[in-house]
Structure to design on (375 residues):
C-alpha cells in the first residue's frame, strides 16, 4: 500500500536582502531594520549585500545575518577609472541577481551609498519589491539614481521630499535606530561611565572618528565653563587621534572629565547626557530626537552638498537644537560653542529644547520599515 501524500507543502522561511555598506551610517540603520524583521518574523532569513571594506565584516560578524561582498566601487569622475567602475558595477549586478534569484528573496532594502545600487537594480529587473532609505535631507548621488528604480523612498524628514521627482513615491517613516536606544537608562549610563547621579552631563562626540575642531574647542572652553558651572560633568568621546591630548589638557587645567576615544555603548552615553555637542549626521540626529536630547550641532563643513547643514536645519527650525558653524579651528569655535552651552545651562531653555527634540523623534522607525518589507 502506498503511503498517503502529505496534505501540506513545506515552506521555506521568507528571505530579505539589505544592500549597502562601507560606513556605519549606512549599515547601522539596516541592522536596526533587520533586527525588527526578526522580531516580527523570527524565522526570516536575511542577507546583506555589502562592500569589501573590513568595517562591513566587523559589524556583521557578531550578527546572525549572511553577508555577500560585492566588488562594486564608488563612481568617479576620473576618465581613467570609469572603466574599472563599470566592470565592477556589471559584476556586482550579476552577483546580486544570482543571490536574489537563488535565495528566493522577496524584498530588498537599499541602505544608501554606492553599494546599494547593484542590489536594488538587480531586484528591479527580477520584479522584486524594493525600497531605499534616505535619512538625509539632501539625497546622495546613489539615492537620486535609485529613486526612479524602486517602489518606495523612505524619508527621515518631510523636508527631503522636495529633492525627489513628483512621481517618486516617498513616505516619511524616520531613520531606523537600534532598539537598544529606546531601552537605554540614564542612571545606568552614568554609572557605566563613572558619572555622578543628580548632576547634569555634557556629552561631546564627533562620531566614530572624532572631530578635531570640536575637540580642541571644548578642550579650551571646558575649564572656564566648569568654573562657572561646577555642577556640570563632561563625557568626551574624542576619536583615537586626540584622546591623549584632550585628557592631558583637562588634567592640567584641573577641570575633571571622563575622556574616551570611542565607545560601543552610545545608547548608554546618550541616555546619560543632558546636553550633546555633536556633528549632524542623519543617524546621530535620529538617536538624539528619539531620546529627546537637546543638542549643539556643528555640521561637518567640508561636504560639497552641505547635507549635514541641511539635516541640522530641521532640528534648529523646530527649536530642538542650536547651530554653531564649524570654522575648522578650535580657537575660533570656542566662543560660539561656549555661548550656546551657557544658554543650555539654563534648565528652562534646556527643557524646552528637549521637548522639541522629542517631538521630532521616531523611535519606532525600524519597526515601520520592517513592516513594509514584510508586506
Amino acid at each position: 500500500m502506498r503511503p498517503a501524500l502529505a496534505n501540506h507543502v513545506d515552506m521555506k522561511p521568507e528571505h530579505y536582502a539589505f544592500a549597502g555598506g562601507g560606513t556605519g551610517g549606512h549599515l547601522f540603520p539596516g541592522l536596526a531594520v533587520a533586527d525588527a524583521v526578526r522580531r516580527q518574523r523570527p524565522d526570516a532569513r536575511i542577507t546583506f549585500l555589502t562592500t569589501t571594506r573590513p568595517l562591513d565584516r566587523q559589524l556583521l560578524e557578531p550578527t546572525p545575518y549572511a553577508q555577500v561582498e560585492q566588488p562594486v566601487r564608488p563612481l568617479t569622475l576620473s576618465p581613467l577609472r570609469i572603466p574599472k567602475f563599470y566592470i565592477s558595477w556589471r559584476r556586482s549586478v550579476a552577483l546580486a541577481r544570482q543571490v536574489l534569484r537563488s535565495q528566493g528573496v522577496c524584498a530588498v532594502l537599499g541602505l544608501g551609498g554606492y553599494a546599494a545600487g547593484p542590489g536594488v537594480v538587480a531586484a528591479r529587473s527580477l520584479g522584486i519589491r524594493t525600497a531605499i532609505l534616505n535619512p538625509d535631507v539632501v539625497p546622495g548621488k546613489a539615492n537620486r539614481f535609485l529613486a526612479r528604480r524602486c517602489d518606495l523612498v523612505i524619508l527621515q524628514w518631510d523636508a527631503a521630499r522636495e529633492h525627489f521627482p513628483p512621481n517618486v513615491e516617498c513616505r516619511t517613516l524616520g531613520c531606523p535606530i537600534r532598539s537598544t536606544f529606546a531601552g537605554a537608562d540614564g542612571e545606568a549610563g552614568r554609572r557605566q561611565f563613572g558619572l555622578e547621579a543628580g548632576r547634569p552631563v555634557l556629552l561631546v562626540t564627533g562620531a566614530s572618528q572624532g572631530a578635531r575642531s570640536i575637540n580642541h574647542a571644548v578642550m579650551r572652553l571646558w575649564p572656564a565653563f566648569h568654573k562657572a558651572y561646577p555642577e556640570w560633568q563632561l563625557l568626551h568621546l574624542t576619536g583615537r587621534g586626540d584622546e591623549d591630548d584632550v585628557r592631558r589638557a583637562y588634567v592640567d587645567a584641573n577641570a575633571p572629565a571622563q575622556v574616551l576615544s570611542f565607545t560601543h555603548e552610545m545608547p548608554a552615553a546618550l541616555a546619560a547626557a543632558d546636553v550633546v555637542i555633536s556633528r549632524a549626521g542623519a543617524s546621530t540626529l535620529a538617536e538624539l530626537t528619539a531620546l529627546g536630547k537637546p543638542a549643539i550641532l556643528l555640521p561637518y563643513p567640508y561636504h560639497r552638498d552641505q547635507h549635514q547643514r541641511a539635516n541640522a536645519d530641521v532640528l534648529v527650525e523646530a527649536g530642538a537644537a542650536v547651530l554653531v558653524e564649524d570654522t575648522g579651528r578650535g580657537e575660533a569655535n570656542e566662543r560660539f560653542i561656549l555661548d550656546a552651552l551657557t544658554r543650555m545651562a539654563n534648565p528652562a531653555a534646556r527643557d524646552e529644547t528637549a521637548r522639541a527634540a522629542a517631538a521630532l523623534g521616531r523611535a519606532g522607525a525600524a519597526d515601520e520599515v520592517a513592516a513594509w518589507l514584510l508586506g
